[in-house]
Structure formats: structure tokens, C-alpha cells
Description:
By secondary structure, the chain is an all-alpha fold. The protein is built from 19 helices and no strands. The longest helix is centred in the last third of the chain and has 42 residues, at 310-351. It has helices at 2-35, 39-58, 66-81, 92-106, 113-133, 137-150, 158-161, 166-179, 183-195, 202-213, 217-230, 235-247, 251-264, 269-306, 310-351, 356-378, 387-420, 427-451, 454-468.
Amino acid sequence: MKKILILIAATTxxxxxxxxxxxxxxxxxYFNSSINEVGDAKKTIFEDAKKxxxxxxxxxxxxxxxxxxxxxALIYDTIYHNPTYAAMDSDAVEKSxxxxxxxxxxxxxxKYEEYCTIGILNGAFACYNQAVNSSNxxxxxxxxxxxxxxxxxxxxxxxxxxxxxxxxIYYNLAITxxxxxxxxxxxxxxxxLMDLNYNDHLIxxxxxxxxxxxxxxxxxxxxxxxxxxxxxxxxxLINLELNIYMNQGKQDVLINKLNEAIxxxxxxxxxxxxxxxxxxxLAASMLAKSKQARDSSAYYSKKAKGEKVPxxxxxxxxxxxxxxxxxxxxxxxxxxxxxxxxxxxxxxxELSPDYLDAFYNLGALTNNKSTEIAEKINAxxxxxxxxxxxxxxxxxxxxxQDSVLNVALGYFSKALEIAEAKSEETPDKKKEKYSYMAxxxxxxxxxxxxxxxxxxxxxxxxxxxxxxx
Length: 469
């Protein structure tokens, strides 16, 4: 009796398996039949094919069947590409692409390899378009990842030839995550790009900024350091590192690093420019702090003069003296940094005669010297001086100031010449050129105004307006 029961159970299982296999065969028959039909009949037969393949895909007995995956790929590919069937499944492109992939994985005898390879590559392009055009973050990520999964199947590098390499896909993933404020995901994608040696220094800057937001300054500096080993002269990384060290009061650490790099490569004009720029920024910071200290000294000195209580008067005098000493020291140190920057900029234009930024910065640095002279003019004590005596003192300073301004004008004019020769062939290049032109012409306008040449100042202003719109 037991043997009979076993036989019956086995027979039932065989019938069920046959039924599921039948769904695969039915899907194939319906699909092939629909090709030769038209109109409603075609659509009805195709719907039967979809229904049969969906049932086969859900069943344990046929979910890993090679033929099932092949026809699932064909059916869902047809849904995606045929507007008449589009309403049947909005996820058709994803399902067809996954089906092609599964079919290739199972097809050990290469029965469907040629057809499925074409299908999966077309699916990759379609998925990429879905990722780019979707406004939904999760949807974009899903499709980008699916494209990345397909890349190993691209034996002839057709995807790579169309910029759908693994590196580019992960870059798009990283940018999408950053724009969507998905910082944990962005870190994962950026780390992957670093592992893939992606050739863009900004991935290290993006990662460092995220780490800084997380208050992990040590990790941020470590990331920048890794980036600078690959991109030693990239200004974005150097400036980011500088800002961190400045916030920590350790800006000289970066100068030392630059000194070491330049010692190994003294003709590297990019490194020289960066060191000059760092020194220039430090000089500007010291000048600003010196003015604050000087103002504080004047404040306490005034307080001391009006104070009647001896102990308070002494305290104010001490504070005034301390701030004055600090101001003088900062000015002294700032001049050293400024001279260092000037030397580096001059070396840069010696090595690279068309280095626009070096000429522009030399102009700005030189123009700042004229500001110092203007302060000396304003500091002239007019008490007891006749107008003639005052004018004579001013004339001495003005002669020096005009000489300095003309030197600055020469640097700005050279920078303008280089900027005018820049290309406008793409929107980005045009934007960059116009930005340079506007900035340089504004500086030239200021120089002419300080020289008292109103006509040329107005002309520079008129030209500048052309590049600011």
C-alpha cells in the first residue's frame, strides 16, 4: 500500500513539473506566434506569453530554467521597446536586463550568448538613460548599479567606448548621492572611485568635506594627503588642507610640505604657484590681523588718556602697548610672506610665461603696496603744516605710489592679454574666460582711478560690463 502511495506522489510531482515546464513552452509558443500577428490578436497572444512566463518565473521548478530566462528577457524587452505594450509593466527595462544577465550566467553551452549579449548591452544603455533622467534618488542608484553589474559582460568594451565604464558609473553614483545629500552613500561611492584610481582630484575633496562635516578632521586630512600624493599640485586640495591647518593655527605645516615637494622638483611651476598663493593668503591674513591689533591699540590708548584711576590707566596703557607690538610683528611677518609670494610668482612666470593667475596675483600683490603708501599719506600729521608743506610731503609719497601702481598695471595688462586669447568654444570655457576678463578689468579700473586717469577708468568699466552679463 505504501508503494502505491509513493507512486502516486511521484506521478503528481511529475505532472506538476510538466505543468511548469509547459508554461515555459507556452510562453515560447505564444511569443513566437505573436510575431506574425497584427492588431488586437497580436496583443492578446503577447499577453498570454507574458502571463505564462510570469508563472514560470515564480515557480521553484522553473525559476532557474535557462529557456525561461531567455524568453522572459525577450518578452520584457519587447514590452519596453513597444509602445503598445508599455502599460503592461513600467519596470520592463529592468526586468529584461536582469533576465538577459541571468540567461548569460546559466548558459554554459553558449546557446543564447550572442543574442543575449546584444540584449544586455542595449539594456545597459537603456538603464543608464533611466538613471540619468530619473528625479528619484533610489531609482537612479538602482539603475546605475545595474549598469555597473553589466560591465563584466561587455567583452568588446562597447560600453566603455560610450563612456559607460565602471569608473564613470561610480562617479555618477557619487555625484547623485552628493546632490541628494545622501552622505553615507556618497562616502561608499567615493571610496570605490579611490580604489579604482579615478583620475579626478575632486573625489578626495568631496570625501574630505564630508569628513569635516562629521567633525573627523584627522580622517579629512588623511584623505587630502592621499589625494595630494596622486595630485600633488592641485590647488583645490592644497587650499582645503590650508584652511584646515589655518583653523588649527598650523598653516606653516602646509608651507613646510610645499617646501619639501619643491625641493624635489624645483622647476614645477604649479607647486611654486601654490606656495606663492599660500604665502600670499597668509600675508593678507596677517595684514588684516595687524589692522585689528592696531585699532585695538588705538582704542586702549584713547581709554588710557581719559582714565583717572591710576591702576586702570596703567592697564589700558599695557594693553595698548601689547596690541601695538602685535600689530608691528604681524606687519613684519606679513611683509616676509608677501616677499616670498612675489618671488614664487616671478619664478612661475619665468618658467611659464603665459601663467595668467601668477600675473594677476602679482598685480594684486603690487597694488596692495600702493594701499600701504596711501595709509602713510593719510597718517601725515597736518598740525602746523601749511598747504604747500603738506602738498610737498604728499607729492613725495604720490610719486612712489604712482610708480607702484604702474607696475601693478603692467601685470594686470599682461593677465588681460592672456585672458583675451582664451578659447570660447564651449559654454564652460566661455564662462571661465568672461570671469577672468571681468575680474582683471575691474582691477585695471581701480588702478586707473587711483592714478587719477578718469577716462581710462571709465573705459575699463565699460569693457568690464560686457563680460558681467
